[in-house]
Write a structure and sequence with these properties.
Beta-Lactamase, six-stranded antiparallel beta sheet, alpha+beta, 6 strands, globular
């Protein structure tokens, strides 16, 4: 993937805010000021409603649900995204796309993305349980 970011769900659950971003050129903080509202029904608020993943690949129905602030910052309609949960608690969202190369994204890459997101969620859960 060319670009990835992690957005954290703020404590009041009303907004996702970028916490980390990077690209394949070694740049970090490439998307710095993105906030996505969870107050309106959109692709991301639906994604965040439960642990799940999505592969958006120019499907008109899904593209129409992409929040305007995400479209504005990423300029992409082909990407992967996953809600990140710790147990039954929403933590944030991972996002990945091919912004620089615009190479097609494959099903195999999507499967790897899902596995990575699952491991992230599991590790966050394990770490939170160690603190308690």
């Amino acid at each position: 993937m060319d670009r990835v970011f992690f957005a954290i769900l703020l404590p009041d659950k009303s907004t996702l805010k970028i916490r980390f971003s990077a690209d394949s050129h070694g740049n970090s903080n490439i998307i710095q000021h993105l906030s996505i509202s969870m107050k309106q029904r959109n692709l991301i608020s639906i994604l965040m409603s439960k642990p799940q993943n999505i592969f958006v690949n120019n499907q008109k129905k899904l593209v129409n649900l992409i929040p305007p602030e995400l479209k504005q910052h990423t300029k992409e309609t082909v990407f992967f995204s996953s809600s990140i949960y710790s147990g039954d608690q929403a933590i944030g969202m991972l996002y990945a796309d091919r912004y620089h190369s615009h190479h097609p994204i494959t099903e195999e890459e999507y499967k790897i993305f899902i596995k990575v997101c699952s491991l992230v969620s599991q590790n966050i859960y394990n770490l939170s349980n160690e603190k308690n």
